[in-house]
Design brief:
This protein has a domain at 386-527: Neutral Protease Domain 2 (Neutral Protease, domain 2, Orthogonal Bundle), CATH 1.10.390.10. 26% of the residues lie in helices and 28% in strands. The protein has helices at residues 9-24, 309-331, 360-364, 373-383, 400-417, 422-430, 449-471, 473-486, 494-498, 503-508, 510-516, and strands at residues 81-90, 95-105, 112-118, 128-135, 138-140, 144-146, 149-158, 163-173, 181-183, 188-190, 194-195, 200-202, 208-209, 212-213, 217-218, 235-244, 251-253, 257-262, 265-273, 278-281, 284-290, 296-302, 338-344, 349-352, 355-359, 392-393, 491-492. The chain has an eight-stranded mixed beta sheet, with no helix packed on it. Strand 4 (128-135) and strand 5 (138-140) form a beta hairpin. It binds zinc ion.
Length: 527
């Protein structure tokens, strides 16, 4: 018997709702207690003899910057939310004037009297200014904007399955990044939203229709500086950006299909994305390659005439393409024709739909060997195309559902391509930090990135390895593939992940769950 839909449906709905209930009413911030009762020793590295599928040889990179012409996307599923965004970016002022049309089909199953948007830039003052909200060509005045939450009443109500159009007019002012961070009054975050001397980044920049659940209603996640806290639903996008005062040689990195209506304008279309992120720079160089499965991988990197940035970029590009090819074999097809990798002028890395950042520090410090951060983080970020972009999750309350799978994808990457460095990976990435903490802790339990990474990522990698030992390679990999397949396009919760294990397999993981999880019985109601 399997703990999924079928006979356990009613129980599962109750459990998922219970999980949602705890998710939508975050507890007040408490001092983290990250010390689990049971400490587990670092596992032995998995045997290098395990053979993972071998993708075909990848094409050689093309060092000549090319005009971005891409075939139609493979993913044409229509989402319940569609955004048509028309923006003018003032290059010198770092501001955007935006008109955003939103088409929303009521997918909640019952009549709605309101619609809620989350506007990440409005966590800070002076970054977002809403000038007009219209519905069916009528200007609305009874909306409320409080922090990141915009609530628009639907006075004539919207029945289940019905569609409505809203148009938002607003102005954005990007923050200046400091050492790659946006430092604000609410906290700080990596520079995926803001500008530096050589890059301007639009990430999580526009009002997004909130995810909805039947118990809590519209979800507006509490802001937190450590990790991510977003709950993003899949949607379809068409974003057109005109750049006023564009410098010579400006390149715009963005996901999906791209066209150039004129010299100053870029247009991107993306189906089934969770957001749409862009990076602008007049210092970008472009490398690209095509995987055996036909996915074009593009790397936008920041050139430095003083350094050998080309060979570094080639390594990053090949790592991204290799990772994509392996994960397609392991987890299922990448549902897009392009993957864009951007050297972020900020630390670490960040995932978006069809586009990932790898921090400039990993490029700058690359010494020419595979066993370095550039390889690790590139392989990690690419895996988020499955664990975040394809299968969404509540990143604030259940961050392990994407980060644990992403870090274990690094293991699978090294095991397949660089098995001689697998022991190095476990030592360098995990053991060095003597990790402690519960894998299933929410980001709100942590006040430092190190403590968060140690618990959720590093102990997450250890738990995945233990689960692999419990289940055996075949069942373990089949589980991950089933999770990617069955939860694609949705927001998954722990019951969805664990519920895809057959009952006896789930039972065989009990000791591992007890060792690593705060709530070892993942189907029990939260305490
Ligand atoms: Zn990650």
């Amino acid at each position: 018997m399997i703990h999924k839909r079928g006979s356990a449906l009613i129980i599962l709905i109750g459990l998922i709702c219970a999980a949602l209930l705890s998710a939508c009413a975050p507890e007040s911030l408490t001092v983290p207690d990250a010390s689990p009762i049971v400490q587990t020793l670092l596992p032995s590295p998995p045997g290098a003899g395990v053979q993972l599928p071998m993708p075909d040889q990848l094409a050689e990179p093309n060092a000549t910057p090319t005009v971005l012409e891409t075939p139609p996307q493979q993913d044409t599923t229509e989402s319940d939310v569609r955004y048509d965004i028309d923006a003018v970016l003032n290059w010198d002022e770092h501001t955007l004037q935006v008109q955003q049309q939103v088409t929303y089909r009521n997918d909640t199953g019952h009549t709605q009297t309101e619609i809620v948007f989350n506007i990440e830039p409005n966590h800070e003052p002076d970054q977002f200014e809403l000038t007009r909200v219209t519905r069916d060509n009528r200007a609305l005045t009874d909306y409320t904007l409080e922090g990141a939450r915009l609530l628009v009443p639907l006075n004539d109500h919207l029945a289940a399955g019905q569609t409505t159009d809203l148009t938002l007019d607003y102005r954005l002012a990007l923050p200046q990044l400091q050492d790659g961070y946006s430092l604000g009054t609410a906290g700080y975050h990596l520079g995926y939203w803001g500008y530096s001397a050589r890059q301007l980044n639009l990430g999580l920049w526009f009002p997004a229709v909130a995810a909805y659940d039947p118990v809590c209603g519209w979800i507006t996640p509490e802001y937190h500086s450590v990790g991510e806290h977003f709950v993003l639903r899949a949607a379809d996008f068409a974003v057109q950006i005109k750049v006023d005062g564009a410098p010579d040689g400006l390149r715009v990195a963005g996901p999906g299909d791209v066209t150039r209506p004129d010299e100053q304008t870029w247009r991107f279309e993306l189906a089934g994305g969770r957001e749409m992120a862009f990076s602008f720079s007049d210092q970008f160089e472009l490398l690209s390659t095509v995987t055996a499965s036909g996915v074009k991988v593009e790397l936008y990197y920041l050139s430095d005439p003083e350094a050998d940035t080309l060979s570094t970029a080639r390594h990053a590009l090949h790592t991204a393409a290799d990772a994509l090819a392996l994960y397609e074999e392991l987890y299922g097809p990448y549902p897009r024709s392009r993957l864009v990798v951007v050297e972020g002028d900020f630390p670490d890395g960040m995932e978006f739909s069809g586009l990932v950042y790898v921090g400039e520090g990993w490029f700058r410090t690359w010494h020419g060997t595979p066993n370095e951060w550039l390889t690790i983080i590139t392989a990690h970020e690419v895996s988020h195309q499955w664990w975040y972009a394809l299968v969404g999750n509540d990143q604030g309350n259940c961050p392990y559902l994407d980060e644990m799978l992403a870090i274990y994808s690094e293991v699978l990457f090294f095991e397949h391509y660089y098995p001689d460095y697998l022991d190095w990976w476990w030592q360098f990435r995990v053991a060095t930090y003597l990790p402690a903490g519960y894998v299933d802790a929410p980001v709100y339990d942590f006040y430092s990135a190190r403590g968060y990474i140690n618990a959720v990522y590093l102990r997450g990698a250890m738990m995945m390895d233990a689960l692999r030992h419990d289940l055996g390679d075949e069942a373990f990999l089949a589980w991950l593939r089933a999770y990617a397949d069955q939860m694609a396009g949705q927001v998954a919760y722990p019951a969805d992940f664990w519920g895809l294990l057959p009952e006896d397999s789930y039972a065989s993981t009990e000791q591992t769950r007890l060792a690593y999880l705060q709530q070892a019985d993942v189907f029990a109601s939260p305490e």
